[in-house]
Amino acid sequence: MSAVRAELTKILTLPRVWIATGVVLALHVLVLVQSVRLTAEAVAGITPDGVIEIFIGTPQPATEAILGLLAASSLQMGLLVPVLAAMIAGQEFRSHQLGVTVLAMPRRGRLVAAKALATAVYLLLMAVVIAGISTAFMYAAVRDWNPGLLVTGPAVLGHGKFVAFAVLFGLTGFGVTVVARSTLVGVIVTIAQIAVTMTQALAGAAPALDALLPVSAARNLLLDPGINRLTAGPGHALLVLVAWAGATTAVAGITLSRRDAR
């Protein structure tokens, strides 16, 4: 735990990390500011039988639609979390300070584990803040209809799924960066993963393969299958995210133990 605290202290003293965190949170607020009025108008138009049209021409049950929109609003910023994780993981390679760290902690497997845990703690806190911001803006939209919906079990479960995704996907970016010893490579791999899912390049031709990608797993974990076209269930999605995070972190530990500390 002392090693984890030391690594967490490093993270909290990196100006680049604070700047990147601020940019992500500011972008999240900016996006929600643009959409909250439209959401409020859709909520005001909920029919007596509980149907809402968030998207014109697409009526949906209001409760499910609002919870889905809440999850989706957090998900869009969660996609940027691995970029932050890559910056955290690549800092010591960029500043050539890894050798000093190894002198203080020669057991490199323990070193990688401490770095991964510290990164996970930071990403966890950031994910909770993102979910909190999403909830605050959604409250502004539904406060005259059903604000209690935001503290129900399904809403809390949705936040839990998002936090799990953010941490696991972030650890995947962390692992890739340590293996490549390059922040840029970690960022490029993250962007490539997002692009493959967003373009639906595999979802139509090979849905089983698409379900094995981390961003697709995020969609399968967080979004409503009744509204969205998904390629697997939430249980499968969670296993995929755990596998990606575990595999990349394990490979990072093996790679670091077999290379020079530079």
From TrEMBL:
Keywords: Membrane, Transmembrane, Transmembrane helix. The chain crosses the membrane at residues 12-33, 65-90, 111-142, 162-180, 187-215, 235-256. This is ABC-type transport system involved in multi-copper enzyme maturation permease subunit.
